[in-house]
Structures are given as structure tokens and as C-alpha cells.
Amino acid sequence: MADNDAAATPAIEFHHLTGRVWVTPFHPDPAWIQPSVALVADERGSVLVDAGQSPAHAAEIQAALRAAGLPEPRWLVYTHHHWDHVWGACAWPGVEIVGHVSGADLLRAEAARPWSTRYLREQVRADPRLGPSFRARALAVDSWDDFTVRPPTRTFTDELELPTGVVVRHVGGHHAPDSTVVVDPASGVLLLGDSWYPPPLHLRPPDDGPDLALVRRLLTDDIGWYVSSHSPTMTLDEARAAVAK
């Protein structure tokens, strides 16, 4: 990749949000389609929320973990099956991958596709609406030689509580059928993933917008912080004000 491309990618760091929750920022350039990633750090076994959008992104996340002195994850939770949240999973060997049962079926189908730069080009020629997403994928993956899409190794249907007290809850919504939120009650943090966003661009009707009704259902006095994958983190008061607008 050219030097100016590398310079466009900011260094990844984990920032302490509150309690035992640490978060990396999302990429400020939406064309990169690089979401934030969170870690719920615990001596019993940390929980990583989303894998990174590529093996290279995952390697940067791993370096940021070491730099911050944070423990390696024991669990990796997918907020949903979209590529920018799961394509880094092949760089996380040994973790238990948790995801919704409907996402597991979708990811098994994704894993069977012959991912390569040539394949991406062919798909964009067939459907130009895929252009922004597939161009970002081509930029994100340095080599396809050892690349694999990993479905979850542990699935759930409605809700699952991990041994650290982290709660994984299916919410669905317009963005993806398997959209999942992750709650750390001990820290008062809810990780929204992309759950309230409209569908991906190539599937989005012209008048579709954020799913504010879903957000309203998730706002509660027990949670002080709301973290989305491609948007600034909000306090409860900020989230309520944003929904009210």
C-alpha cells in the first residue's frame, strides 16, 4: 500500500471509557469502513467485541492491547455478520467466537465464497452498488493467502450471559437480522454495534434512516454510556437528546 494510504490510517489505541470497558476509535474516513472495537477487561477472561475488519486491523488491535497492558481476550463477540466486524477473526486463534444463530448461517455462506481481488472485481461488475463496500475490502486485506471467514463457535438465540457477567442480547433491526448488543452491567455500558443504523448502502431504500425506535427501547437509567461502531460514544443524556431530535 502506498505511503499516503498508510498515513491516512490513524494509529489504533485503546481508550478507557469507564469501569472495565476500553474502546478503540472508529476510522474518521467512512470510506475505510473501519469500526471501533471494545474490550471488557477482566481477570477471569476478557471479552472482545468485534474482530476488526481485516487481519491487518486485528493485528493493530492486538498491538494496542499489548501497549495498554490489557489482557488477551478469551471470548470474541460478533455484533453482527457484516464483513467489517468479522473479517479480522482469522487473526484471533484460540478464542471462543460468540454470535447469533442467524448470523452463523450467513457467515457459513460467506466463508464458502472465493474471496480474492479478482472475485471482488467480478462482483462489482455484476452489481455496481457493491462498489464502496468491496473497494474497502480490497484495501483492507493485504493478502488473501491465509484469509478465512470464521463463523461463531458458540451461538445463542435471545440472550447469553458470559462467565464475566457480560450480557449478549439479540435485538435484530433493519441493519442486519443478527444484530446483537453487548451489555456490561458492572460498568454501565451498552455496545450497540450497528444495530440502529439503516441497511447497508447496496440494500438501502432512498428514504431509509436510523432505527430510532430500537434506540428508544435500549435507553435505560441503568446504562450511562452507549457505544456505536461508527459514531461517537454518547452518555445517556446525550443519547436521549439525540433521539428526541
UniProtKB/TrEMBL annotation:
InterPro entries per the UniProt record, alphabetical: Metallo-B-lactamas, NDM-1-like, RibonucZ/Hydroxyglut_hydro
Domain of life, source organism: Bacteria
UniProt-listed SMART domains: Lactamase_B
Gene3D superfamilies linked: Ribonuclease Z/Hydroxyacylglutathione hydrolase-like
Leader sequence segment: none
Pfam families: Lactamase_B (PF00753)
Metallo-beta-lactamase domain sequence ranges: 34-230
Protein name per UniProt: MBL fold metallo-hydrolase
